[in-house]
Write a structure and sequence with these properties.
Elements (H helix, E strand, L loop, with lengths): L2 E9 L14 E9 L5 E6 L10 H9 L5 H18 L15 E3 L7 H9 L4 E5 L4 H11 L5 E5 L6 H9 L3 H6 E5 L6 H7 L5 E3 L18 E4 L6 H10 L3 E4 L6 H18 L25 E2 L2 E2 L10 H6 L3 E2 L4
Parallel strand pairs: 4-5, 5-6, 6-7, 7-8, 8-9, 9-10
Antiparallel strand pairs: 1-2, 1-13, 2-3, 11-12
The structure holds magnesium ion.
Length: 330
């Protein structure tokens, strides 16, 4: 039997995070898990009800009843990894070579030639741009950004349709289209419409993972799989990327720094195993939130996140000092 304790936290976004989120505070819970063999580890639980996850309170209620939701199962799996690293005195950065991250642009209207120059100067070569709010303005700005030399990832978060996406792509200059590495969730998933979208550019699957009938497909549903270790089991992920010859981008869940370090560690470990199949990660989101004691320990050197002090995901003293509340029934 395991013992699980919770510490509720609130994150304060500095601005709207994506096309589906409101601007309000975000709630989540850190979990402290103790196993019968004496190991103890930590993980984050940061559901996004806007993206179809069960709300946090309900997840914790189920946990208190001894039922593990799929999000909680992933958190427990990551907590076990943290526990094993801690017991060996290892930091999660010790699992592989550092991996680059894309630079996240939440609001394209804030991008200027000077700001892009500064981003490039820091060492970034890939922008991930959240779109889907005002396609006319977005295509105009993308046509301007295209000459900057960055690879571009676009994320629509499923806002739109095949026809609105076709128009969006037609409005881009050939230079802008050539700069696109992939487009994430251009509109809600269906086999046929996504197959058509893939004629226009590489397509990445993120929030519609559960809607794909993986076992009956006759061709790959996408070119790239966006994997959030907070949500997906990595054994299954590895099977799918090998079966369908997919590339993969590991991202955090715009979550607590504990979740971010777990995502980054997963990316480093997977890259060690699969090499170029693993693209640049998307784990640099800490600047989206107001700083607190945890965020203060997250630093990046351009596209690389720096190692946090301590074992496992780090933050040893901060995690030990938190007030924890027992959740599980045992
Ligand atoms: Mg996405």
């Amino acid at each position: 039997m395991i013992k699980v304790a919770s510490h509720l936290y609130t994150l304060e976004p500095r601005q709207s995070l994506n096309a589906v989120s409101s601007k309000g505070q975000r709630q989540g819970s850190l979990l402290k898990v103790q196993w019968e063999d004496g190991l103890q580890g930590y993980a984050d639980l940061h559901p996004w009800p806007e993206l179809g996850d069960m709300p946090l309170r309900e997840q914790l209620l189920q946990l208190s009843l001894g039922n593990y939701t799929s999000s909680v199962q992933q958190s427990l799996c990551l907590a076990r990894w943290d526990a094993e690293l801690r017991s060996q005195g290892k930091n999660i950065f010790d699992v592989g070579a550092p991996i680059k991250n894309n630079f996240l642009v939440s609001d394209i209207s804030h991008v200027t030639a000077e700001s892009l120059q500064a981003v490039k100067h820091q060492g970034f070569d890939t922008l991930k741009i959240k779109v889907g709010k005002d396609s006319q303005e977005e295509t105009r700005l993308l046509n301007r950004i295209a000459s900057s030399g960055f690879k571009i990832r676009l994320d629509f978060n499923g806002v739109g349709s095949l026809s609105s996406f076709q128009k969006f792509m037609a409005d881009l200059s050939s230079e802008a289209r050539a700069a696109i590495e992939y487009v994430e969730d251009p509109f809600p998933y269906s086999d046929q419409t996504w197959a058509e979208a893939r004629q226009l550019c590489p397509i990445a699957l993120d929030n519609y993972f559960d809607q794909v009938k993986w076992d009956v497909l006759s061709e790959a549903p996408c070119d790239v799989l966006i994997v959030k270790p907070a949500k997906l089991d990595m054994v299954e992920v590895k099977r799918l990327i090998k079966t369908w010859n997919l590339k993969v981008t590991i991202t955090n869940y715009m979550d607590h720094p504990v979740g971010t370090m777990h995502a980054l560690g997963t990316a480093m470990e997977l890259k060690k195993e699969l090499g170029d199949t693993v693209l640049q990660a998307g784990c640099l989101t800490h600047h989206l939130y107001q700083a607190d004691v945890f965020f203060a320990e997250l630093r990046n050197d351009g596209p690389y996140l720096r190692k946090t002090a301590g074992t496992g995901v780090g933050f040893d003293h901060l995690l030990e000092a938190l007030p924890w509340q027992l959740v599980s029934p045992n």
